[in-house]
C-alpha cells in the first residue's frame, strides 16, 4: 500500500482555456501559477487546479461515469455574499443555496458544465448529520 500524503492537483477538461481561466479567476479567486499553450495551473485556496483545453470536446453527461463535482470550503460568514456574487455574474446555479449535511451549500457550473460547489460544513459535520 502507498501512503498518500495529500491531494496534489485536480485537472479539469475545458473547451476554451481563456474563458475557463477568467471564470475560475473571477468566481473562485484563482491565482495563476503557470500558463502553457493548452494548460493553466491555478491555486485556489491552496488547491492546485489544472485547466486543460480539449478542442471539440463533448459536454459531460450527468449519467456518465467519472467525477461528479468539486466542492470548495467557504466560511459561513462569506457564503451568502458568494451566492450573491454567483447570481450577479450570471453563473448557472443548479442547487441551493440550502442547508444540507451540517452546512450551507450551493452547486453551480463552470462555462463547460463542470459542477462545482461552495460548502460551509466539514466532513465530520456531514457524517454526523447523516449517521
UniProtKB/TrEMBL annotation:
Q: Which residues form the signal peptide?
A: none
Q: Which InterPro entries match?
A: Fosfomycin_Res_Enzymes, Glyas_Bleomycin-R_OHBP_Dase, Glyas_Fos-R_dOase_dom, VOC_core
Q: Which GO terms describe its molecular function?
A: transferase activity
- PROSITE patterns documented for this protein: VOC (PS51819)
> Main EC class of this protein?
transferase
**Which SUPFAM superfamilies would you find in this protein's record?**
Glyoxalase/Bleomycin resistance protein/Dihydroxybiphenyl dioxygenase
Specify the VOC domain's residue ranges.
6-121
Q: Which UniProt keywords apply?
A: Metal-binding, Transferase
Under Enzyme Commission nomenclature, its number is 2.5.1.-
**Protein's UniProt name:** Metallothiol transferase
Amino acid at each position: 500500500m502507498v501512503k498518500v500524503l495529500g491531494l496534489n492537483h485536480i485537472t479539469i477538461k475545458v473547451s476554451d482555456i481563456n474563458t475557463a481561466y477568467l471564470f475560475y479567476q473571477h468566481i473562485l479567486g484563482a491565482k495563476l501559477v503557470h500558463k502553457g499553450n493548452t494548460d493553466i495551473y491555478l491555486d485556489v485556496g491552496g488547491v492546485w487546479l489544472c485547466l486543460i483545453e480539449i478542442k471539440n470536446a463533448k459536454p459531460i453527461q450527468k449519467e456518465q461515469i467519472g467525477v461528479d463535482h468539486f466542492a470548495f470550503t467557504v466560511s459561513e460568514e462569506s457564503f451568502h455574499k458568494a451566492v450573491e456574487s454567483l447570481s450577479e455574474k450570471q453563473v448557472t446555479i443548479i442547487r441551493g443555496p440550502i442547508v444540507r449535511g451540517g452546512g450551507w451549500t450551493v452547486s453551480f457550473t463552470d462555462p463547460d458544465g463542470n459542477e462545482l460547489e461552495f460548502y460551509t460544513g466539514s466532513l465530520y459535520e456531514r457524517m454526523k448529520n447523516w449517521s
